[in-house]
Amino acid sequence: MSHDPSRTHAVIDLDEDYPEIREGVQRICADYPGAYWRALDEKEAYPSEFVQAMTDAGYLSALIPEQYGGTGLPLRAAGVILEEVHASGGNASATHAQMYTMGTVLRHGSEAQKRRYLPEIAAGRLRLQAFGVTEPTTGTDTTKLRTRAMRDGDTYVINGQKIWTSRALYSDLMLLLARTTPLEEVRRKTEGLSVFLVDMRTAVGNGMTIRPIKAMINHNTTEVFFDNLRIPADSLIGEEGRGFRYILDGMNAERILVSHESLGDAKWFVRTASKYAGERVVFDRPIGMNQGIQFPIARAYAQTQAAELMLRKAAALFESGRPCGEEANLSKLLSAEAAWEAAEACMQTHGGFAYAREYDIERKWREARVQRTAPISTNLILAYIAEHVLGLPRSY
Q1: For the whole model, what pTM was predicted?
Q2: Contact 259/307 with Cβ under 8 angstroms?
Q3: Looking at residue 7, what is its pLDDT?
Q4: Who has the most CB within 10 Å: 27, 202, 240, 255?
Q5: CB-count exposure of residue 329 (10 Å: 0-12, 13-18, 19+)
């Protein structure tokens, strides 16, 4: 078989890659221990100090090219940042959206938009953390969303509602998906959707209303209402009507990044459970001597290792510019499942103490569970694999 020199190879690093980034993130996280996250959880507060520390260190601009003031790192490096936050016992939900929503502006925005926004985001003077896609009546059936954006001269007028829009109260900009052509007027249901970059600093109180949602986890999530919100026409990203493709274009990156968070959670649970099992003495012996304790932790470790290998493969394929839809989805599936199994093992190992907030296990357990539902559910990933990989009939 001859070698094709034009073929781009995907190289998987099996060592602990990006050690300097890992150490740097760990140093920051050491200043924000479990007590910090517990206090936020009780007050349903936003981790402003942590976000600022990550911003000041340049980690939130990891994927912004150097020409726009960022560090221009590979997707894997950005994933490592998120992984280490979770492996330290923290939560990166307040920071991760800026990484993957920014990609839509970078890939599809005009040069004027990139020069206007990306340097400000990289410097931390603007936050792009809100992503307005999901709606109460349509959920993941995105093509049927009802939020409308109608052109009116040099503006668009927006009406509708979004839900589960996390961090909207703490963001300056929102990436918004809205329908610009009614569903009944397009040939394909994926057409007629457009993406806008909305300046929330002027929108709130002028047609945009944000209401917090009390939830099981402290992700500062909200519902957002649009009532004749008028935004400049140059808020449109790319071409009108092609927004669904733009959003899909960033899905692989999003799933790879979020998978790193689950991987970090899994590592935290396995490490925490193993440490406690070796120290906790019941019936005159460490409980870690019992196979009933050992086996769930060992199985969770095995699942974590397998998930990490798939995740490294997905990131390597993404960086080489090769198709990675299968690997990105499998990474999301396997890492979320590994984190959940590790969370369950950790809960069982600690017994009643797992329910005491001071151990941070119940908080992390709640946070790990959400990854099986969002930003894409396990069932939809299985449906994708069935149809697009195994060639089975479309189920929805």
Answers
A1: 0.94
A2: yes
A3: 53
A4: 255
A5: buried
